[in-house]
């Protein structure tokens, strides 16, 4: 308790006011899974991001940066540390000709619609993704076999020493659903994109079609975290997407506790009500093992798993 009070005091002295104590992480994840985090802080600008990181580093407190929590599995035990949420203050969009600057907290569906409405094309594929721009860049997310890196010019980050740096796209090490920020732990605060001029009706038509497809293909109601396994381009070409392999291996509908391989899309694991992180991890292990035995492919995870001590781990070593 003393430790938490000390952190809160330091935050307040730096003018950081958006602080919540003992927050259930199930409220911060689209999977609706996760025990309590000691603190959640939502910085109101770049300086507060830097101050937050410097304070937490000085006090040796573990922290995890999140956007909208749509690619994260939190632990049932929660987090003995601090969630740094990049949201409201970073949800601006600035447009100048073909150049678009977005704050890291802007919901990407809003960004896609906003630029589409004025005839800018290049990011229609992100219209149905529920994350923030920061999370999307860190994950190099996208759909329709496209990635946000296709249009990124540069990414402004706050480094661990508190300095802000603009990183040109070629230094972001973008590859399929991966970027240098997953390793560097830099905090993305702003992203600059270059789009193309397009026909507004075409853009709207494409976005509507994408949204319709997603509604038909993806589970709608049950909480989930999108695709669990990576659909890497080589395996996709040679064998197909993970959903197809999981279905072929007969795992559709498999469950552990309240975690279930979606009956609608086999690469989604849905929370039927009270799924725990343990249930999800066990189910991932079982599916991966079965796919390996039946199809011969060892699936890699797209989702990030956050431990109680704040480490981000891939679940790739888990199998039965
Ligand atoms: C229904 C559904 C459909 C989905 N469909 C797709 C899809 O079509 N394509 C796709 O690519 N993804 C998809 N996803 C996954 C997810 O939405 C994306 O990966 C998204 O980009 C994550 O953004 P987020 O803000 O939720 O990030 P989070 O889940 O909060 O974080 C993801 C990772 O990024 C880090 N991070 C987040 N923000 C920052 C920041 N500002 N600075 C530094 N690190 C940060 C976190 O630490 C974490 O490691 C889907 C998810 C759901 C639930």
Brief digest:
The protein has 320 residues and is α+β, with helices and mostly antiparallel strands. It has three domains: 2-85, Uridine Diphospho-n-acetylenolpyruvylglucosamine Reductase, domain 2, CATH 3.30.43; 89-203, Uridine Diphospho-n-acetylenolpyruvylglucosamine Reductase, domain 3; 221-313, Uridine Diphospho-n-acetylenolpyruvylglucosamine Reductase, domain 1 (Alpha-Beta Complex), CATH 3.90.78. It has nine helices and 17 strands.
**Class from helix and strand fractions:** alpha+beta
Give the number of helices. 9
Based on CA inertia axes, which overall geometry fits?
A: globular
Annotated CATH architecture of the largest domain? 2-Layer Sandwich
For the largest beta-sheet, the strand count, sense and barrel status come to:
5 strands, antiparallel
Q: How many structural domains are formed by the residues? A: 3
Order of helices and strands: HEEHEEEEEHEHEEHEEHHHEEEHEE
CATH class category label of the largest domain? Alpha Beta
Which blocks of ≥5 consecutive residues have pLDDT under 50?
none
Bound molecules: flavin-adenine dinucleotide
Q: Can you put this structure into words, describing what you see?
A:
With 320 residues, the protein is α+β, with helices and mostly antiparallel strands. The chain has 3 domains: 2-85, 2-Layer Sandwich (Uridine Diphospho-n-acetylenolpyruvylglucosamine Reductase, domain 2); 89-203, Uridine Diphospho-n-acetylenolpyruvylglucosamine Reductase, domain 3 (2-Layer Sandwich), CATH 3.30.465; 221-313, Uridine Diphospho-n-acetylenolpyruvylglucosamine Reductase, domain 1. 30% of the residues lie in helices and 22% in strands. The chain has helices spanning 2-13, 46-58, 108-116, 133-139, 181-184, 200-217, 233-238, 242-248, 277-295; strands spanning 19-24, 36-41, 63-66, 72-74, 79-85, 93-96, 99-103, 120-121, 152-158, 164-168, 187-194, 196-197, 255-256, 259-261, 269-271, 304-306, 312-313. The strands form 5 sheets. A 5-stranded antiparallel β-sheet has the order 6-7-11-9-10. Strands 1-2-5-3 form a 4-stranded mixed β-sheet, covered by helices on one side. It has a 3-stranded mixed β-sheet with strand order 4-16-17, with no helix packed on it. A hairpin with a 2-residue loop joins β13 and β14. It is globular and about 55 Å long. The two termini are 39 Å apart. The mean pLDDT is 96. The structure holds flavin-adenine dinucleotide (FAD). Flavin-adenine dinucleotide binds at residues 30, 64-72, 86, 104, 129-132, 134-136, 138-139, 141-143, 181, 187-188, 218, 224-226, 304, 312.
